[in-house]
Specification:
With 114 residues, this protein is an all-alpha fold. It has a single domain, classed as Methane Monooxygenase Hydroxylase, Chain G, domain 1. 68% of the residues lie in helices and 0% in strands. The longest helix is centred in the middle third of the chain and has 29 residues. The protein starts with a helix and ends in a 6-residue tail after the last helix.
């Protein structure tokens, strides 16, 4: 019953493993000095996978709140004339929720850059 799906999965796994092996076989060893990451011409002061300070978490949440708001507003602007008062009430409820998120972020200090 699932023989076709299992065969396709096996073909995909063999294909990907073959490409990976071919890459490992044919790849040139990179020059360590040529592949160093640079930040605008300066050598990095920390590892690329270093941890971020927790204050950026609140800034990220604030950005996502406004990003989701715009994601909802563009289609809303297209259909607001057709839907009438229902669409306006929905938008004000949504903006109220975003306002609560912004007030929370403000209270938590996400808008302070010190």
């Amino acid at each position: 019953m699932y023989a076709g799906a299992a065969a396709m999965a096996l073909v995909a796994i063999v294909f990907v493993a073959g490409l990976y092996g071919l890459h490992r076989l044919l790849a040139l060893a990179p020059d360590p000095l040529a592949v160093l990451p640079f930040q605008s011409g300066w050598r990095p002061e920390e590892h690329a996978l270093s941890r971020y300070h927790v204050r950026w978490y609140l800034s990220t949440l604030l950005f996502l709140a406004f990003d989701v708001e715009m994601l909802f507003m563009y289609p809303w602007a297209v259909v607001v004339a057709e839907m009438g008062a229902t669409a306006i009430v929905e938008m004000f409820l949504f903006l109220g929720a975003v306002f609560v998120a912004v007030v929370w972020a403000w209270r938590e200090g996400a808008l302070r850059w010190v």
